[in-house]
Amino acid sequence: MKINEMPEFRDKKHVLLADQSETVEAAVKRMSEKNYGALVVTDNGKLAGIFTERDVLRRVVANDLNIKKTKLKDVMSTDLKTAGTDDLISDSLRRMSQGRFRHLPVVDDSDKVIGMLSQGDFVAFTMSDIVGRVGQAATASVQAGKATPWSMLTAILVYTLALLFLASGLEHMIGA
Length: 176
Hints:
By secondary structure, the chain is of the alpha/beta class.
């Protein structure tokens, strides 16, 4: 399945943007007001980097920088990974997990940011996708007259294992 097919992508239209000359203080205030964990940083309207809660901790607080004077360009992450709307969800989630980052800007063919997905968006999608697939399989079995106690037990077992797998993967992704 592709990113543009995710309800979590289609329903999120607002991306928080900031020019690289904006102060950390102003950016953090906007992130806090909107309850966003990251914002996309631009340079003359072009994608320049990303500024995340992790950047606040590791680059600002840990170095005791003055948030009123420090500019985003000095503390943003610039080794930016992006995705396109036709990218596969599984590939994007794998890249995020392997790269150990939590936010993925989605860009169009001209590299304009058109969305942002977080690991939480992928987890929400994955959970609803699993529940939907198990439900479809169970419904198909019942309608076909093939539902047996064993098939129902198997469906419950698969569902439980999927939840455990997702929970352990989520713990790994968020560093718990």
